[in-house]
Structures are given as structure tokens and as C-alpha cells.
Design brief:
By secondary structure, this protein is α/β, with parallel strands linked by helices. It has a single domain, classed as 3-Layer(aba) Sandwich (Rossmann fold). 31% of the residues lie in helices and 17% in strands. It has 17 helices and 16 strands. An eleven-stranded mixed sheet has the order 3-4-6-8-7-9-10-13-14-15-16, with helices on both faces. Helix 12 runs parallel beside helix 14. The longest helix is centred in the last third of the chain and has 24 residues. The protein is globular. GO terms for molecular function: hydrolase activity. This is Carboxylic ester hydrolase. It is an enzyme of class 3 (hydrolase). Its EC number is 3.1.1.-. Keywords: Hydrolase.
Length: 495
């Protein structure tokens, strides 16, 4: 046995004992159930505690992920961002734990993965929690229901099942993390992309009160939600495409392969109208599946909930990347091929005054693809995140990740997801000819960003002023200092 290896740790939980692995001062437990498998009668049911087991459950392997279909990006390896390559299976409402091998009362970080609410996994290599455990944090990563199972308001099915899974996972952490050396009264919930949207929503949810002290929202905000009535259009459209009844029995009878085919058939703009009464589609076509508001999880729109004081006791770190939409438009060639007429049509499917918004970003004076991409950086991610920060009545800090990846011939830049290997100190996962961060990303920057996250998770400390509407102080991570950020042109065109 390697000298760095330790005897396999065994933890006793209410349902039974689990055995993980230990090495280099870190204990690891993978695929630990926080809910019974959502299969059969439980597929569209509220999460319930797992059944007890006898003997010692093996927690050295991650177990299944929610069924999904990952589409490749030309010339870019994105699998490390969203998927650990686990096979599908029913027993996927599980979590991973990385913990220091010794000591108690460690701060706790709960990670919610991204993936547009249709793909992703707690086992994505880029978000491995080892470095956080190395630095004294108990890191917990959770799976949750996705797509049709988690974010489709089907008649007779509880709404927002994916968010309810996250709430169940957080409750499990509250009740069990002390057994792994964690402090249940010092929990930070974190997420990126869809995981960040969910985290932002949970900050405002009355059902999350007391489950966490802090939140980190990476490239997300609370405006990617739909009214239940609008989301019902997606229910009906998918049911017609699948030729099933628009209820639990109908969707439950459809094979996942057919469901994925139907979802892909709705990917292009105009296939289903999900605009609200004001003419806005807040997701801009990135995903058809998002949380809904108007239920007990999200009684009102999350931004309105913040303005009413929801989440004011939660310390918030929120930020975006400088060139979010490059991930979608650069590797695919969309930015280079875009023409003005198509840009106005495309953006117009998600908002009124699309032409004026694009003109404010240079359409007519510069190449259409560049104007559209820069407009959507702000319209989809950057400005709504600032709106969320300004509405939060508690302590709020804002960052911007601006380091530019040299991938894709130097054009990928500070795209969506680029901060992940820096936050988790997993640059090796994103490095290479087709790596997200190119061939020689700066480890010193990863050291500094990871340390900032550790400090905030530990005790809320950050070395820059709070974000306020008047001062608009935003910390630029590569630059290493806070700057005053002007109001973006997008502000004139969004609610």
C-alpha cells in the first residue's frame, strides 16, 4: 500500500454504515444516497429518505448519474465540465464528500453542478473537491433530477422537483455532515451556470431558511425562471412530440432516448414560444428547462423576493465571466458566420427591442456576430447578475473573471465555465490541445482564486468592498483589485 494511503474510513449514518477511501490526509466518500432512487412510483414524487441497508455500503465509487445526452463542441473537450462518465441508473440521488482526515467543526461547501438543467453530474472532474478538503473545507457535491424529471411542471407532479432534491440534499448535510467533521452551522451553498441559477433561487426560497449561511453564485442569477403557465406550453409541446398524455403516466412511459430526441427537436428558436406576457424569454434559448415560480419553493420571482427581504441573512458572493457566450458561439462558428438580419431574428425570439439592443452593442458598425455575442454576454448573464446583487438586501460581493483562454485560436477568452478549474484548483483537467484553458494556464491565478473561495467559505472574508448600486464595486479576479463598473447598455432593454 502507498505510504500516503490510510485505512478505509467507515462512517455510521442513520440508514447504515458506509466505507470510503483516504489518502494524503483527505477522506473521500462517493455515491452516498441522500434520497431513495426516483424510480417507479417515486420517479415524479418528492424526495424521501433512502431505505436502511445492512452491512457496510461501498462508497468508493460514484454510482450512476441522471440519464443525459451530451453534445460535443467542435475542437473543445467539454466533458470534464459536466460529466464524469458514469453510467445511467436509478440510484442517482446521491452525493460525494471530500473531507479532511482529522478534526471537527470544518466549514462546509455544498456544490450544485451546472449543465443547463439537462446535463451534468456531481462527478464532473473539473469540480473535484479534493483541493477544498486539502484546505480544511468539507466539500459535498450533489446530483439532482434534471430535464423532464426535475424541471417540467407536469400536472399532478410536484413542481421544481430538481430544486426540492437540492433542498433534501442540504437537509441531509445539516443532519449528517458532523459525522464527516463538518460544521452544520457553517454551510456555504455554491454552484455554476444552472447550478448558480438554482443557488440564487434557493437564496430566496422560504423552504431553504436555515440550511446555509452563505452562497456563491458563479455565472448565474435568479431571473432564469418561468411562470408555471408559460412552462406548461413546454409540457404540452413535448407531450405532442412524444405522442403521450401530458401527465406523469405519459412522460413516464416515454424512453429517455425519445425524450432526448424531442428536446433536441425544440432546441432551435421558434420551435416553442416560452416568452412571458412582456415578450421576454429569460433563458435566451440556452435551455428549455428552468425552475418555475408561483409555488411553495419559489412563491414569487426571485428578484422580487430579494426586494422584499428574502435571503437578507445570507452572505452572497456572485459574479460572471467577461465573455460568457463565447463558449456557445466561438467553437461552433456561430459568431464568425452570423449576419445582421439573423442576429436580430435570433435575439428577437427572446426579447422585444432586439434591434435597438444589438445596435447599442455595435450592430451596423461592426461584424454582426461580434455585436450579438457581446450583447448576449450582458443580456443573458452579466447584467441580470448585477440586478440580483443590487436587489439582495444582505451582504453582497461581486466579482468578474476576465482571464482569457488562448483556446480556439485565442478566441475562446473568458467564456462560460472558464473559472471552474481555477476555483477548484483543477487546471490539469482543463489543460491540453482541446482543453478549455489551453496549453499553459497560470497556476498562480488558480492558487489566488481558490484561496479567495476558501476564505469566503470559511468565515465570509473577502478583500474588497461590498457591491452597492451607487459604488458598483466589482473585483476583477485576474487584475486582483476592485473597480467601479459602469451601468451596462443591456440595462435599458431588460426588465
Amino acid at each position: 500500500m502507498n505510504d500516503a494511503m490510510s485505512p478505509a474510513p467507515v462512517i455510521t449514518l442513520p440508514q447504515g454504515r458506509i466505507k470510503g477511501t483516504a489518502a494524503h490526509g483527505i477522506r473521500q466518500f462517493l455515491g452516498v444516497p441522500y434520497s431513495a432512487p426516483p424510480a417507479g412510483a417515486l420517479r415524479f414524487a418528492l424526495p424521501v429518505p433512502p431505505a436502511p441497508w445492512t452491512g457496510v455500503r461501498d462508497a468508493s465509487k460514484p454510482g450512476p448519474s441522471y440519464p443525459q445526452r451530451l453534445k460535443p463542441f467542435p475542437g473543445l473537450d467539454v466533458q470534464p465540465l459536466v460529466d464524469g462518465g458514469q453510467p445511467p441508473g436509478d440510484d442517482y440521488l446521491t452525493l460525494n464528500i471530500w473531507a479532511p482526515e482529522t478534526g471537527d467543526g470544518h466549514p462546509v461547501m455544498v456544490w450544485i453542478h451546472g449543465g443547463g438543467f439537462v446535463v451534468g453530474s456531481k462527478d464532473a472532474p473539473i469540480s473535484d473537491g479534493t483541493a477544498f478538503a486539502r484546505d480544511g473545507i468539507v466539500c459535498v457535491a450533489i446530483n439532482y433530477r434534471l430535464g423532464v424529471d426535475g424541471f417540467l411542471p407536469i400536472d399532478g407532479v410536484p413542481t421544481n422537483l430538481g430544486l426540492r432534491d437540492m433542498l433534501a440534499g442540504l437537509a441531509w448535510v445539516r443532519d449528517n455532515v458532523a459525522a464527516f467533521g463538518g460544521d452544520p452551522d457553517n454551510v456555504t451553498v455554491t454552484g455554476e451556470s444552472a447550478g448558480a441559477m438554482a443557488t440564487a433561487d434557493l437564496v430566496t426560497s422560504p423552504l431553504a431558511n436555515g440550511l446555509f449561511r452563505r452562497a456563491i453564485v458563479q455565472s448565474g442569477h435568479g431571473s432564469m425562471v418561468r411562470e408555471i403557465g408559460v412552462a406548461k406550453r413546454l409540457v404540452d409541446t413535448l407531450a405532442r412530440r412524444l405522442r403521450v398524455s401530458p401527465d406523469a403516466a405519459g412522460f413516464g412511459s416515454a424512453p429517455y432516448g425519445a425524450i432526448f430526441d424531442a428536446i433536441e427537436g425544440l432546441a432551435k428558436p421558434g420551435k416553442v414560444d416560452l416568452r412571458d406576457t412582456a415578450g421576454f424569454e429569460p433563458v435566451f434559448g440556452i435551455s428549455r428547462f428552468v425552475p418555475v415560480f408561483g409555488d411553495d419553493v419559489l412563491p414569487v420571482h426571485p428578484v422580487e423576493a430579494l426586494r422584499r427581504g428574502a435571503g437578507k441573512d445570507v452572505q452572497l458572493l456572485i459574479g460572471t465571466n467577461a465573455e460568457e457566450m463565447n463558449l456557445y458561439f466561438v467553437p461552433t462558428g456561430v459568431r464568425a458566420k452570423m449576419i445582421g438580419l439573423v442576429a436580430r431574428w435570433f435575439v428577437g425570439k427572446s426579447m422585444p427591442a432586439a434591434g435597438k439592443a444589438l445596435k447599442a452593442y455595435g450592430l451596423g458598425r461592426r461584424k454582426a456576430g461580434w455585436a450579438m455575442t457581446e450583447a448576449l454576454h450582458d443580456l443573458v448573464f452579466r447584467w441580470p447578475a448585477r440586478v440580483f446583487a443590487a436587489a439582495h438586501q444582505g451582504r453582497t460581493h461581486m466579482y468578474e473573471f476576465e482571464w482569457r483562454s488562448p483556446a480556439c485560436g485565442g478566441e475562446l477568452g473568458a467564456c462560460h465555465g472558464m473559472e471552474l478549474p481555477f476555483v477548484f484548483d483543477t487546471l490539469d483537467i482543463a489543460t491540453g490541445p482541446e482543453g478549455l484553458a489551453g496549453t499553459a494556464p497560470p497556476q498562480a491565478l488558480a492558487d489566488r482564486i481558490h484561496a479567495l473561495w476558501v476564505g469566503f467559505i470559511r468565515d465570509g472574508s473577502l478583500p474588497w468592498p461590498e457591491f452597492e448600486s451607487g459604488t458598483r464595486s466589482v473585483y476583477q479576479l485576474e487584475r486582483g483589485e476592485a473597480v467601479h463598473e459602469p451601468v451596462m447598455p443591456a440595462a435599458a432593454f431588460l426588465p
